[in-house]
Amino acid sequence: MLRTEDTSVTVYRQDYTPPAFAFGHVDLLVELDAERTVVTSRIEVKRLVKDTPLILHGEEQELLAVTINDEPAGHYSIDEDTLTLHEVPARFTLSITSANRPSANTSLMGLYVSGGNFFTQCEAEGFRKITYFLDRPDVMTTYTVTLRADKAQCPVLLANGNLISKADLPDGRHEAVWDDPFKKPSYLFALVAGRLSCIEETITTGSGASKLLQVWVEPADLDKTRHAMDSLIASIRWDEARFGLELDLERFMIVAVSDFNMGAMENKGLNIFNTKYVLANSETATDTDFANIESVVGHEYFHNWTGNRVTCRDWFQLSLKEGLTVFRDQEFSADMMGTASGRAVKRIEDVRLLRQVQFPEDAGPMAHPVRPDSYQEINNFYTVTVYEKGAEVVRMYQTLLGRDGFRKGMDLYFKRHDGQAVTCDDFRQAMADANGRDLTQFGRWYSQAGTPEVSALTRYNPADKSFTLTLTQHCPKVGIEISNEALDKQPFHIPVALGLVGPDGRDLPLQLDGEAAPQGTTRVLDLTERTQTYRFINVDAPPVPSLLRNFSAPVALDIHYTDEELAFLLAHDSDPFNRWEAGQRLATRTLLALVADAQAGRPLVADAKLVKALGSVLTDETLDPAFREQIWILPAETYLGERMGIADPAAVHAARQALRQGIASALQSELTDIYTRHRATGPYSPDAASAGRRALKNLALGYLIETGDAKALALAERQYAEADNMTDRSAALTALLNSDSPARGEALADFYMRFSDEALVIDKWFAMQAMQPGRHGQHVIDTVQSLMQHHAFTLRNPNRARSLIFSFCTANPAQFHAADGSGYTFWKNQVLALDAINPQVAARLARALDRWTRFTIPLRDRMHAALQQVAASSMLSRDVREIISKSLGQAG
Question: Measured in Å, how far apart are the chain's first and last C-alpha atoms?
């Protein structure tokens, strides 16, 4: 990869201009060869702006020929990343032949080779590594693609759309011709070629059309594809039922590849997946893996309409497709859980991710609106803000408009914009027009960065039996906004779902002042001003307010609850999310107090009220096991660090471990009973109910290990030895790694020997060791550095790099933030090493230090030094340079 000292060029949303040329149909001929693939494009071109040169994008291309209307082009120029045709007719046929080197493409963008097979990844700007093109999302056209390759090396040839023909050629080669009848931008182009096998099924859609579904993998993995196929079928059925959207091609294909930068890619009709999100059976995949496969398969399929049929005008609108499709896959997964409690578990999981990852991003140097205003490298903006906060913005439409109103908005969106490249504002307008609502102010969710803070003050007046709620919103300046003195952030339109819980634990009817009668027990209040007051009447007794039910808006809520009120809501709130939320608030309050004790050198003692409340939940058989498990998961160390003014990872870890040990000791008999009663007796099934029982059982085992009791160690050793599924086996191994058991080493060695041929399982083996807490002076970084020399480790495979390096740097804060700074030196070395191979992966690792200013001074100084050392490199990619420069830019 060519590097320069500084290739930073900032792109601004306000500078968008429509393309000066339109492309009609595109014919591609791809002569596949690992060392030198030759691509010939034939494009129908129409000039839209007079006297404008045609500037095509191209990277790492060897230009072989250019013709206009079948005559050699006379006046063109090329540079590092463009081909410019200076004088072109108003309409013409452009033909370009160029060559690229898939075997040398370690960035895994464009056309590359993995395991002897050919794959592509074109989002966001990878198509320009395949051929010269107008590689931007608002240039949409139809494609016919002819693939040619050696038949023995590549018996399978796949591309977007429908298979038109295939034929044998001389010299042992063959070809396949594919046609995609739907207009698409170049980022949705895909081809796959190699030695692959598939399972397939034919289904009939709601309109009676027959569709062929295929899941393609390496032959040895064919037995791990059933769940992916079932998930695809479930996704197709769900999208028809929920949104009336039907599969529009004759076939739909999923292909799995082990070398992949992302989770998966929604190329039209030919989805390419990381193997992690396709391959699963009971021996190799955990319950979480099964759930993630279902979710990701759903996500990529749902893109067929929300992203493919209607796509983004420009990359600033990325959340138009990603936020909307994340919301759709969240709703799909929640519906697949099958129960109200299951939906709550899914909601809790999504909000936990939002708070642990997106809220910190919203407050850090990479803070940006859901629709960013500028970028230097678009790959750096595939962020949790665009995806997860974007999904929360879409969810707020449904909260404000209701499920039926949201569906009406979706119907109008597709009616207006099918086959177009549009904006977030176009989606908002469709929602508004379909429901007769003014959503102008709501648009601020797209344009203003940061997490809004909502404070709540309450007062009950027994004289007139009224309850008054005053809400105030504020959103602090973040990121580059801080230096903008003129910026005045405006109030958001925030839907606040509210309930009032009476002394008997039941919801009270809600009647606002001025209303003739109560209207339900949960209401959505429209908070649109900086401060608003709501007065409820006929409230017979002092209630405990239940605010932001189902987490109705992605805000930080500041409300004073006593410990007794939180325990009351934990026991009685009818909204399961807020029941969990009460437990989290109580646990966070306890943990932060313990952190202060740890910093002061005081004894760390578990709070008796919290222990009692958790004990009541644990033994409450009216609650689903999966829901009890969620309540028992303590706030993460990273989340607790963010709640502190200055993060102290060592104190946070000590506090959290002390609380876990205190809870385990106080409730040892109850935990043992839970473990015993939730052991499975029948064959393994990944269904939600079975997974919930295993989750609660394994949570109990994890707590019991904290006691150090020999019986608990024996339970873990027995579970590891007798497990018939990966969920139980990996949970037992994790428990042993968190203990002083002499069986730790033996179990690790056995695990590797059992699964040495299963790449995804060996990823787990690396990750479990990278995330272990370390005991009695053990430094996990020594283990990590040793594992980097293991023959099974390679930096070139993103999954393997993530399993070891990312797990240590981002998921083991106490060990990564060791006082001696060794973690930061390790981070620096790996960022630089990865950047020379795969800048996109390196940039994601670079973000592990982007919150460096919020740590204690010794750690902060060492992180700053590591960042400066990376910045000093003259060979940084644009991807990494943007992250490092923005991280250092907050120093002032």
Answer: 33
